[in-house]
Every structure is written in C-alpha cells, then in structure tokens.
Amino acid sequence: MPEPSLPDPSSALGAVLLPIENVATRMNRPAARLLAVSKTRSTGEVAALADAGQQAFGENYVQEALPKIEALRGRGLEWHLIGHLQSNKADLAARHFDWVQSLDRAKLVTALARHRPAGAPPLNVLVQVNIDDETSKHGCLPGDVPALAKAIEAEPSLRLRGLMAIPAPHADMTRRRDAFRAMHALFEALQAGHAGIDTLSMGMSEDFVPAIEEGATMVRIGSALFGARPAKTEGPA
Ligand SMILES: *Cc1c(COP(=O)(O)O)cnc(C)c1O
C-alpha cells in the first residue's frame, strides 16, 4: 500500500520551486536556492527527490546522515549539516559534508579546519546566529560574528559563505520578519568586510516566502517536500 501522506516527489518539488520562482520574479532577484531537509527521511526518499532534480540536502545529525551520504555517493548530491554540531563529531562532519551551516563557536573553526581532508575542496561554512530565540542554546550572538568570520578566513580548508539562522517560531509572522530583517542587516555588514559572502540561509516550510522577501538566498525545507514528520522524531538538535 502506498503511504497516502507522502506527496509525489516531483510534484512536491514543483510546489515548492514555483513560489520560490514567483517571489524572485516579483522582487527582481535571483531565485533562492532550495535545500531539501532530509532528517528522519530514508535513503529511498532522498533518492526519489534527487531523481526529481533536487541536488542539495540538509541533515541535522551527523550519525543519521552518514549512511545516506554513503549510499548515494556518486550521484553528485551536496550535503549540508544544519543541526547542532558537537566538537567530537567535527571530524566526521569535515570529512563527509560539503557545507556546515551550524558553525557557532571558535572551537569548531579549528576542529573543522584540522579534519578537512587534504585534497578536498574547502568546506563551505555558514555562521549560525541566534537572532532572537532566547530558549535556544545554539547559534552565536550577533556580536560574535566578526571574530568568527575572521577566524574562518584564516583557515585555508574552510570557505566562509555567509550566515544561517533559525528564528523563534513566533505565531506572529511580523515578529519572524523582524528576525529575518535583522539577519539581513548582519549579512550585509559581513559582505561589506569579506569577499565571497553569498549565502543567507533562513526560512523553512512555513515561512520561506517572507524569508526570501527579507533577503534569504537559501531556504531549508523539509515537511513541504517530504510530508509531515512524525512528532516524536523532532528532538532537540
Ligand atoms: C527541520 C529543519 C528545517 C526544515 O523544517 P520544515 O519545517 O520541515 O521545513 C530547516 N532547518 C533546520 C535547522 C531544521 O532543523
């Protein structure tokens, strides 16, 4: 029996890409990149979305991601770590991912740099900023961004691409927009001081259109592509 809650991958992809294209046209900007968030999803589900044309996938847990990355090696997929990274997993993250979006402390800069294999392209990194979520321990403070950016730039095996945020999920969308706007201001300040800063990762299934309107260049979308996640698997990152 097919699972009725699972959308057909190519129509689910189209249903997300269409509003991304529409807002780009409306704002007269390049379309935001789509990162498909595949936490809790099987290798088969990822493969089906890849067959439909999706290239970039985001995972929250290093250990959960490794078998999928391994099984789908050779298909040209790009893997992003978007969950909290423990220092003792920096080694695995640096070896197996293409991007780490959750870099939020100096200790990770040195650990990721040290473990990126010689000969591999530089690891793309985003600094995760805790923009407004007082309940979250993850993400650096806005004032910590300049020092972290400087530390990253000093490491040839890392490539600083920009910023990532997970704003608090306020029911009031104007409060989310405030957070998106504050991130965009930080992003512009970072661009003014560093070359090659091209990625502002913010916006999820519920709020990716306002996030793009406020300046996101990459959106991270799970449930709108794959269907709702079972509630019990959404533990703390
Ligand atoms: C789960 C997750 C997403 C995607 O959330 P959806 O609401 O399913 O689109 C995006 N970013 C991060 C960091 C996540 O953990």
Features:
40% helix, binds pyridoxal-5'-phosphate, 237 residues, TIM Barrel, 8 strands, alpha/beta
Within CATH, the superfamily carries the name Alanine racemase
Broad shape:
globular
Whole-number total of structural domains: 1
SS summary, helix count: 9
Please name the CATH architecture: Alpha-Beta Barrel
Query: What's the pLDDT, averaged over the residues?
Result: 94
* Main sheet makeup: 8 strands, parallel
Q: Determine the structural class based on helices, strands and strand pairing.
A: alpha/beta
Helix share of residues? 40-55%
What's the count of strands?
Answer: 8
C-alpha Rg (nearest Å): 17 Å
Bound heterogens, unique: pyridoxal-5'-phosphate
List low-pLDDT spans. Answer: 233-237
| Named CATH topology | TIM Barrel
The run of helices and strands is: HEHEHEHEHEHEHEHEH
Strand order of the largest sheet: 7-6-5-4-3-2-1-8
The percent range for strand residues is: 15-25%
